[in-house]
Specification:
The structure is a single chain. The protein is α/β, with parallel strands linked by helices. It is built from 8 helices and 12 strands.
Length: 250
Amino acid sequence: MAKDKYIKKFGLVGKNIDYSFSRNYFTSKFKQENKKDYVYVNFDLENIDQFKKILKSKPLPMGLNVTIPYKKKVIPFLDELSYEADTIQAVNTIVWDANGKVVGHNTDHVGFEKALIKSIDKNPKKALILGTGGASSAVKFVLDKINCSFSFVSRNPKENQLSYDEVTKEILDKIDLIVNTTPLGTFPDVDEAPPIPYKYLCDKQFLFDLIYNPEETKFLEEGRIRGAKTSNGYQMLVYQAEKSWKLWSQ
């Protein structure tokens, strides 16, 4: 047991996260970089109140990632937020600073922006964001930054948001980017997809899905067969993970 204190532990906070991109990615990274005393584990929490146990654990983790459904719910447990996390109001990376404060960051916006710019020839002008969870706020942050106007689409729309029934051909004709931030279509439920009228898609649109498993979701497939360009969320996850690592390594 005495040996444990020399282990540098990192981890992912979420629920039902056996599929975990982060654990596989960082475990491989540590192996490749010969970091023999580094481990990355899943903290699979039934509810966010269990996060208190992590904050009291000894030794403390060196850094954490946060995923669905806790990106917003974890905020009250933190001492500070970075500007980006505060603006987005979602946290996917946690750092203990030099003073021992627990600081929330958001690297999703970094990952999405890099992956998007890499995949397109010119910045989009008008977009739809499908879903209104924590990840959608990071997408909003980026679209604001690149001056792309957008509308949120939700099953339970609030003011200035669209319902899926309100997404018409007339609306889609003006759209050049559609981003799926919902979990619809994630393995094993690969036949699911956001209920937009796919028959009106065309080759002028770009579809970006934050899901990476499966490699091509039903959402992306429906766009591809109608000539739209598509991208899944894998590269976004790599970019956000590397930004997390930089924050932990400062």
